[in-house]
Design brief:
heterodimer; A: alpha/beta; Aspartate Aminotransferase, domain 2; Aspartate Aminotransferase, domain 1; seven-stranded mixed beta sheet; 37% helix; B: 472 residues; alpha/beta; four-stranded antiparallel beta sheet; 15 helices; globular
């Protein structure tokens, strides 16, 4: 059934003179390009792009799409990524001309509906966070981290304080320490204790007058709520530091606990995870941040404000860090988050977390004898099992299991992260999966563990390709279809 | 409504299973790991839930209060442009297999996306004349900031020169990113509307890591790019060049003009305006910098069966491996936008890109002439331009002019005073291939009628009438 001809590279499908789009005849006088563009800037010929018909293109991309797994087609329990259902109604609304065909530099009077939606969303994000002010500008979670750390740096500078360190648990996502360094701080690692929680002894030894921010992911990467979070926040605050919450795991605690209430001073959301934005093959996301009142003057501009006559963009914050992105932000992603939140309301959001946690605990109950979970009896939205036992018994590694699951029609869980668990298998089912799907997934894992080792190690058998040679890819560095132009 | 599939029976049976394995037995105890003092003990205060019909009405009502092409003709640019998006781009990119997939960590489950990104990288290198492209960044501005950080990482130098003719928001983002890194930024002035090579000579020195240039520049003017990159190179600095990808149907590629790192806003390549995002940050560079690149890269390789295939590669640059030593904190790229721009470029092909660029040039030239024919506006810069130009309102009321023209049905231009106090009597006007002669004539007529009479209401009606005529 596979059409392998259409999935040749665009450059291989190209034929000189073949056309897709044609631009209509000019209704204004043609311009003499030679006269209009100085020779130093004028190209002799357009770039050598591939030449294809529209059907060539449709067939190429349609066939390529079938080589992907996706939420629309498969269970996608990729831990820490919250691969929930992306509602179709949001897509139709995001495509309305009054939302999609709106220029970022239109006068505010021609944007009142857009600004009202964004103003509403600022308020909603503040409420869910338990914090006071919101910037919708950051384009992704990692940029939200960077933005918040720049805000923290500006806050300390404004107070005349010099603080150079950002503390980051070793179990945290790699963006945390990378963001800290980009913001001009030094990243200091904090160890995890035997239960995967922040090691309080190590933390105490590293908090000092240089501590600017502790970045914490709560619930953490193991799907556990930091038991000592209140004490952690107290220690950091007493030392004059701030708490940053990585909101990647907000799907576990919507309406159940608010970061601002458990000590966070700033946080980012991942609307493409928690609030159902489609992941788009790796973006676009968005990374709105919420902060406590004392940090508000330093947020990026513009933000949306409401006044008697309506809504407008507020640029007037002399202490603002400036901008991290052009224009307003990833508005299309924010609009989908708004539509999702308005669909659910307060009870619906709380249900999201209840059922996400229920599904994770159910799957944990089905799998814990196969993939032991080192640290805990229960979990929140996700859990991390270990394939260590399996590997030493039969030679089947976490990677083998991941690849063999593809043959059973399931996307693989996240494997080998976090690094604090050996042969980690990180599973996040999300709330939108049914009991039958979870049962089938657990059955598949049970079946695979009983299969001949060689069969599993040779997986996947049904995918278009089998275990690409990553070493060769890095060595040969073939990153484009032709050599240097 | 939470998109939940659970029946009451499902919930009961799931809790039975959980309880048997020693886990929590009811909804409330699922959250027993959260200390009581951390629990929210009231419902969230957010607006009530809406069913699908109510939601549709609500969002349509909001959308109805924004001007769109149905109610106003768009002459706005400044880095985001009303270029035509062929239906094939929307239709293919909406396929759930693209739309609802994620980062291709499992290569076997993501060959479609990986090939798309490999082709995207290839298209970007072809377009820009550079050797390597990454899988995309957030937008043109953050791509510019990342390029500057790259340049700073390959030299010990600590000074960056930004052309005043580069997009002011790109410059702001660069300055925000550099705020705590001990780097000096210098703005190179452009009083003539372009950066003069001899003026650049004055501000670059042996401490300059890179120069940020833009072609065509923020005012729409065409820079002497090759001469400017020569000045940068003579001082041992790298040339970071922001380009309008659509202009490359006519203009010499930045790689052929001495650029070391090229960045671009990819919005104009098949992506909708969407009030500023999501957009597409393009970043391409010379091969020697590949290990200093931010963001993801797709590489070609072979699988165990000897089949050609694609994987994420050179990941040791990235945050998930290198943590604080990574080249950048970037994690997600703008995959869906990269897909859209690839489809768009494939549909256009070399001739289509050329035709779009020629059409922009011809229509912008026509609009320039028509707008300056009247009594109200004058030219501000005497430079060649591509699809955008700056006009001066001697009455110094560009904001009022914009408001009056909006009620006449035109989004007429972007007032420049917000970024350039010395240009607070100026408007930036953009004309893409989508604008018709009638629309351009209508704008010129509306501007002149505003000038002739101080009674805007009468002439607004007149102008609206002419727009209406033009539509038929």
């Amino acid at each position: 059934m596979r059409n392998t001809q259409s999935t040749n590279l665009l450059s291989e499908l190209s034929r000189p003179g073949r056309r897709g789009a044609r631009v209509g005849a000019l209704d204004v006088p043609a311009v003499d390009v030679v006269a209009a563009i100085p020779a130093h800037a004028r190209a002799d010929a357009p770039p050598a792009l591939p030449e294809l018909s529209e059907l060539d293109i449709v067939r190429h991309y349609t066939n390529l799409s079938t080589l992907n797994m996706s939420v629309d087609s498969h269970f996608y329990p990729l831990g820490s990524c919250t691969m929930k259902y992306n509602p179709k109604r949001n897509e139709r609304l995001a495509a309305l001309p009054g939302m999609l065909d709106v220029h970022p530099y239109q006068p505010e009077s021609s944007l009142q509906g857009m600004l009202e939606m964004l103003w509403n969303l600022q308020g909603i994000f503040a409420e869910i966070a338990g914090l006071d002010a919101v910037s919708l500008q950051p384009a992704a979670g990692a940029q939200g981290e960077l933005t918040a750390l720049l805000v923290a740096a500006a806050y300390f500078r404004d107070r005349g304080e010099v603080r150079s360190n950002v503390l980051v648990p070793t179990s945290a996502h790699g963006t945390n320490p990378a963001s800290a360094v980009m913001a001009g701080f030094k990243a200091i690692g904090i160890e995890s204790d035997a239960e995967g929680m922040v090691d309080m002894v190590d933390l105490r030894s590293k908090i000092d007058a240089q501590t600017a921010v502790l970045m914490i992911t709560n619930p953490n990467t193991l799907g556990l709520f930091e038991r000592n979070i209140v004490e952690i926040a107290r220690l950091v605050h007493e030392a004059g530091g701030l708490i940053y919450l990585d909101g990647a795991n907000m799907n576990a605690i919507l309406g159940a606990a608010r970061p601002g209430d458990f000590g966070a001073d700033m946080m980012h959301y991942n609307p493409h995870k928690t609030f159902s934005g489609p992941h788009g093959g790796g973006g676009p996301g968005a990374g709105p941040i919420a902060v406590r009142a004392m940090l508000e003057p330093f947020l990026p501009t513009p933000r949306v404000v409401r006044h008697e006559g309506g809504f407008s963009l507020d640029f007037n914050h002399p202490k603002s860090i400036g901008r991290v992105r052009s224009f307003f932000g990833n508005v299309g992603v924010l609009l989908r988050a708004y539509a999702y939140i308005r669909t659910l309301g307060a009870d619906g959001l709380a249900d999201v977390s209840r059922y996400a946690v229920l599904n994770a605990n159910y799957l944990l109950a089905l799998l814990r004898d196969l993939l032991p979970v080192p640290y805990s009896k229960g979990c929140l939205h996700e859990f991390v099992g270990s394939a260590m036992e399996m590997k030493s018994r039969s030679g089947i590694s976490a990677m083998d299991l991941a690849k063999r699951l593809l043959d059973y029609g399931f996307h693989a869980p996240t494997v080998y992260f976090p690094i604090t668990v050996r042969e980690a298998v990180m599973i996040e089912p999300t709330e939108t999966e049914s009991r039958e799907t979870l049962d089938a997934f657990a059955d598949a894992i049970r079946t695979i563990i009983g299969e001949p080792t060689e069969l599993v190690q040779a997986a996947p058998h049904t995918a278009a390709v089998n275990r690409p040679d990553e070493v060769q890819a890095a060595k040969s560095q073939r990153l484009a279809w032709s050599a240097a132009p | 409504m939470s998109y939940l599939p659970h029946t009451a029976d499902d919930v009961r049976r799931m809790f039975e299973t959980i309880r048997l394995s020693g886990g929590p037995g009811d909804m409330e105890s699922l959250f027993s790991g959260i200390p009581s003092e951390c629990r929210l003990k009231r419902p969230l205060k957010i607006p009530v839930a809406l069913d699908e019909m109510e939601l549709e009405s609500h969002i349509r009502e909001l959308a109805g209060r924004n001007s769109s092409p149905a109610s106003a003709v768009c002459f706005l640019g400044g880095g985001a442009y009303d270029h035509f998006v062929p239906a094939v781009v929307d239709q293919l990119a909406a396929r759930g297999e693209f739309f609802t997939s994620y980062t291709p960590y499992q290569a076997e489950a993501s060959q479609g996306n990986l090939q798309v990104y490999f082709e995207y990288q290839s298209l970007m290198t072809t377009l820009t004349g550079m050797e390597v492209s990454n899988m995309s960044l957030y937008d043109g501005a953050s791509a510019a900031a990342e390029a500057v950080l790259m340049a700073l990482s390959v030299t010990p130098r600590k000074k960056v020169v930004l052309s005043a003719s580069a997009h002011p928001e790109y410059r702001q983002v660069v300055e925000t990113y550099l705020a705590n890194l001990g780097v000096e930024t210098v703005i190179a002035a452009c009083p003539s509307g372009v950066l003069q090579p001899q003026d650049l000579v004055q501000v670059v020195d042996d401490q300059t890591a890179c120069v940020l240039l833009q072609q065509p520049n923020f005012f729409g003017c065409i820079e002497q790019l090759s001469a400017l990159t020569k000045v940068a190179h003579a001082a041992g600095a790298l040339a970071v060049v922001a380009v309008d990808p659509v202009s490359l149907g006519l203009l010499k590629r930045p790689g052929d003009c001495g650029a070391d790192i090229v960045v671009a806003e990819g919005q104009g390549l098949g992506n909708h305006l969407a009030y500023g995002g999501p957009y597409l940050g393009i970043l391409a560079c010379r091969e020697s910098f590949v290990r200093r690149m931010p963001g993801r890269l797709t590489g070609q390789t072979l699988d165990r069966r000897g089949n050609r295939c694609w994987v994420l590669t050179l990941q040791t640059r990235e945050q998930h491996i290198r943590r604080e030593k990574a080249t950048s904190n970037v994690c997600t790229n703008q995959g869906l936008l990269a897909l859209r721009s690839s489809i768009h470029l494939a549909v256009l092909g070399p001739q289509g890109l050329r035709e779009v660029a020629e059409s922009c040039l011809a229509k912008a030239s026509y609009a320039h002439r028509r707008l300056l024919d009247g009594q109200r506006l004058s030219a501000r810069f005497d430079q060649p331009f591509f699809k955008e130009f700056v006009v001066r309102d001697p009455q110094s009321r560009p904001n009022e002019l914009v408001a009056e023209l909006l009620s006449a049905g035109y989004l007429a231009g972007v007032p420049l005073g917000r970024w350039y106090p010395e240009l607070d009597d100026c408007l930036l006007v953009a004309v893409t291939e989508r604008r018709t002669r009638a629309e351009i004539d209508g704008l010129a007529l509306a501007i002149n009628s505003l000038f002739v009479s101080s009674s805007p209401s009468h002439h607004n009606n007149h102008a609206k009438h002419s727009v209406h005529q033009s539509a038929f």
